[in-house]
Amino acid sequence: MDLQENIREGLRSVNANLLRTILTALIVSIGITSLVGILTAVDGIEASVKDSLSELGVNTFDIYSKRNREGRSEGRLEKSAPPLKLKEVIRFIDNYKYPASVSVSTYVTSVAELKHGSKKSNPNVGVLGANDEYVALEGLNIEKGRNFSSIEIQYGSNVAIIGQDVVSAVYEENQEPVNSEISFLGSKYRVIGVLEEKGQIGGGGGPDNSVIVPLINASRLGADRDLRYSITVGINNPNEMELAMGEATGLMRKIRQDQLGDPNSFEIDKSESLADTMGEITGILRLAGFVIGFITLLGACIALMNIMMVSVTERTREVGVRKALGATPLRIRQQFIIEAIVVCLLGGVGGVILGVGIGNLFAMILGIDGFVMPWLWTGVGLGVCIVVGLISGYYPANKASRLDPIESLRFE
What is the number of helices (H) and of strands (E) in the chain? Predict the structure, then answer.
């Protein structure tokens, strides 16, 4: 018996015990599904974040209000820092001389209700104020209309740029939003632009369900509460990031009147830190996928070994006949190992198909567009199947190869 004959014999044996084969393959399939499914979903999330960062660009950094933890450091009560104020961020824009684009933004509310004619949205629309650099630095694109003009920014005109979810909520299908009028928070605004659809992890938020108004206008809307302003700086040369951040830190400390030796009364971070954080999260998710898949495949390995032991016992007489006809122990081992690998690969192929489908479905539920085909994890999954087949099939195969041909022929 050569290797090809062993493969054919293994396939015939699988076909002869089809129900048992299917049940065993299903156990393997569940393990591979959990492994490939989680890793596919993680790849989809990671790809979405990378796309967002590539649009935003890694040559940006943010300045925002410090998070006051109200705790103690080295036995001393930490001093709380007041949030950034409008006059401070405007002063920063006027005095920051490094070659860069600077955007300023603030959230007014996330529970606004918009009205247009007789239609109104759910009370979950975000309203934020920004300057004319905000759209570009946040990686957004205007599909219809235009951005804010310098006059509108300077005087805080009642104009607005809206997202796609807002358009769907308050406009008819063939109705043109640009130059129409909407109202929210007790004021009327003229729509001058519509953003391209961006998508949002988790759905129901982000730029698609937001209205952007001029910064001064937003400050008037939020006059009854303390708004928290944030600054995004996009520099022209990414290699000069540290220098640009150093100059921005010095200027903001001067504006905030931070004393020499005191910590910054604000936060400053590179956009790359988001990628680093996302890398850590996806790493944990991948590890969880491996652990869940390993535990399930360990159970599959034990179940397959048990079934192969039963198969060896059932086919003891067959082994005796093969040995009597000249089959060597090596060929007997090959036959049973190949049979175990075939069963695992059948389960593995089904698991990969299910895993890719479930992983992409999960990513779609999170609001991520596009189909992800993780070729690396597909290869890993099928490779794991072969390893599982070798491990679970070797001992039964070795036992079969050592059977005495005379005793085997007498077996009933």
Answer: 13, 14
Q: What is the pLDDT of residues 337-390, one digit of tens each?
A: 887 887 788 888 888 888 888 877 877 776 666 677 777 777 877 887 788 788
Domain positions in the chain are 3-53+277-410, 60-270
Q: Which long-range contacts (CB under 8 A, 24 or more apart) does 3-6 make?
A: 3/334, 6/331, 6/334, 6/335, 6/338
In whole angstroms, what separates CA 60 from the centre of its chain?
21
What's the confidence (pLDDT) of residue 202? Answer: 47
What is the phi/psi pair of residue 294, to 5°?
-65, -45
> Could you tell me the two tokens for 187?
């004021």
Q: Are strands 159-162 and 187-195 parallel, antiparallel or unpaired?
A: parallel
Note the pLDDT tens digit of each residue in 147-203.
Answer: 999 999 999 999 999 999 999 999 988 899 999 999 999 899 999 999 998 766 544
What is the per-residue DSSP string for 189-252? EEEEEEEPP---TTSS-SGGGEEEEEHHHHHHHTTTS---EEEEEEES-GGGHHHHHHHHHHHH
173 Ramachandran zone, left/alpha/beta (phi>0; psi -120 to 50): alpha
Residues 223-235 as b/e (b if ≥16 CB within 10 A, e otherwise) read eeeebebbbbbbb
* Residue 384 and residue 32 in contact, taking contact as beta carbons nearer than 8 Å: yes
Closest CA to 64 of 259, 213, 242, 228: 228
The helix/strand/coil state of 274 is: helix
Token pair 């937003």 is found at: 218
C-alpha 388/C-alpha 158 separation (Å) is 66
User: Model-level pTM greater than 0.70?
Assistant: no
Bridge partners, residue 128, by sequence: 107, 212
Picking from 151, 222, 214, 215, the residue whose alpha carbon sits closest to that of residue 186 is: 222
Task: Determine how many CB atoms are found less than 10 A away from the CB of residue 359.
Answer: 26
Q: How many CB atoms lie within 10 A of CB 180?
A: 15
Pairing of strands 210-214, 125-130: parallel
Residue with tokens 């950034």: 84
Terminal alpha carbon distance of the chain: 25
